[in-house]
Write a structure and sequence with these properties.
The complex is a heterodimer of chains A (340) and B (330). Chain A is mostly helical and 340 residues long. Chain A contains 19 helices and no strands. Chain A has one domain. Chain A is 78% helix and 0% strand. Chain B is α/β, with parallel strands linked by helices and 330 residues long. Chain B has 2 domains: 178 residues, no CATH class; 143 residues, Beta Barrel (OB fold (Dihydrolipoamide Acetyltransferase, E2P)). Chain B contains 12 helices and 7 strands. In chain B, strands 2-3-4-6-5 form a 5-stranded mixed β-barrel. The two termini of chain B are 41 Å apart. Classes of the chains: A mainly alpha (340), B alpha/beta (330). At the A-B interface, helix 1, helix 2, helix 3, helix 4 and helix 5 of A face helix 1, helix 2, helix 4, helix 5 and helix 7 of B.
Chain lengths: 340, 330
Amino acid sequence: MSTQTVVEPEPAATPPAPKRRVTSLEVLCVVLVVALLAQGRLVQWLDVPAIQTGATIFVAVCVQALPFLVLGVLISGAIAAFVPASALNRLLPKRQSVAVPVAGLAGVALPTCECAAVPVARRLMQQGVPTSVALAFLLAAPAVNPVVLVATNVAFPNNPGMVAARLVGSLATAVVMGWLWARFGKAEWIIERALRRLPEPDGRSRWRLFFETSRADLVDAGGFLVLGGLTAAVLNVVIPRAWVDTLGEQIVLGVLVMAVLAVVLALCSEADAFVAASISGMPLLPKLVFLVVGPAIDVKLFALQAGTFGRSFAIRFAPATLVVALVCAVLSGLLFLGGA
Amino acid sequence: MRRETQNILLVLVGGALLKISLTGAYLQYVKPSHQFWLIGGGAVMVALAVISIGRDLIGPRRDPAAADTPAHGAADPAVHAAAVPDSAVHAAVGLDPAGRTAVGQDSAGHAGPESESQAAADHGPDSHGSAGHGPAGQAAADHGSADHDSAGHDHGDGTHDHPARSAWLLLLPVLAIFLIAPPALGADSVLRGDNRAAASRAAGSDGMVAFSPLPAGSPVPVPMSEFAARAAWDSGNSLTNRDVQLSGFVVAQDTDVYLARLSIACCAADAFPVKVKLVGQGTAGLANDTWLEVVGRVEPGTATKENDYIPTLTVSSITEIPQPENPYEG
């Protein structure tokens, strides 16, 4: 593997060093070599149906989401390098209470999945966009973009109200959360690193900044995405699906069950409509809750947010998002689906 | 985590994405249309890492003027340390002057006393004049980040280490893909899931619809989800008295034997099963996860709400087949 050739000169370079620490490069090598040597045993040891199912789901979530994360960090890097903070400030209305809905609508135009929205939102904050506005974008972009709405329409061909209900429910969630943050949010909940302002790059260093920020964001967020995928895979295998059917018949219980399921399954927002549609014997309202809650908050997003904005942000923001999304979905459902 | 380690991890993850997308193994995890995303994503990951490695190796050499002027050299890292938020990047750019000095030493054959002291002034105690070992670029890169590692701790800012540690998790999908290569979901996933039928989804409704007639031929190959949908919802009974050919894998549940296929909308995490109950000769004793091509006729009226719309197929012939390239139905 390519790693070995890179590392060989390492030990030779050590003798004159005053103190010696094991570097991450050496750790990586040891891990890779051990994994290679133990491959046979590892495969044998993991040859349990439940673990294999979990491993497949884990790889599937990672493989499915990583390209979107790459897209997100490229957008984030481009904003950092090529969009001056002053331009963003000119574009957005001066008053936060007006800028929040504008950012929510801007999310409609950007067909990113939820993993891509996190680094972009952080970059917006660094470029001086108010936190509440960036958070409204974070919640709106994955939920209401055209790709997702078309997928929803395809999954529910006989319920055109579903698309409108989803659009309004998700947009309302984003705007309400933005306003709530503007009113109650505290900047110190977000780790300082995520908010540090970038100075304006000059012409020569623009590309360098683009590559460097993209790369660093990818390394940063990638780890947390994997953590989220791992959590989703474990929960996917551990939680018996049977209770969805038995509890789903009751409307109030069904709403709660579907909200929890949306958080636990961590599906891509482009796919969740098909999953919701496939659950038979469930009224439309709980399905709508599933569609509104899922893109706003799930275990994968929680891991990403905790890594990007800090833990004290995530443990406040995530539960609040869950409650607001639940309420918005129910209200929107009553409005567009007539409680059906 | 050191910058080189991060780059290697990115190359490994990107390489893993490229590998599965080019060998076709990706079909066990995501749907076919995802291939271009995987190739693009993998290529960008590898490219970002390669650009960064290349900059570490070549960058210092390309800019000899800057290395000669201490004033410039000192201004440079200051700008970038402020410019770039993360410890990782900080490390990256911070190594610039170190790299320059080290390479300078190397190409000069041996460091004179002046440049030695210059290096020490730049990097503090961590700088060891070891540029003579190994290729110049490697030594330069080593030097720079060893330097930073301690600088990062001097910051006294606990959060600095945190994001770097999480990057180790990127190793998990790499190991999973290269070493374990998890198989496509099969009987275990079907048995684990509930009995949700895909019938309603394929038909796009929960009520009777008139389907277009089946194409001519006998037996007619039909996708499992379409078969289930027609059996449950077709007001024209297009399946009645027609020999159909289905392919799927065996799931034995209690005393019954089912032919099953998983249907995915995006990735394997959202897979849900389509099942058809098999009756007739040769259906007993089939092992789970055996892939079969089955020819038979539907028993009309067997897909009801009570059995979760699972139709029954009277089998006339069973052939064992290898797992298809795309094990899922879209």
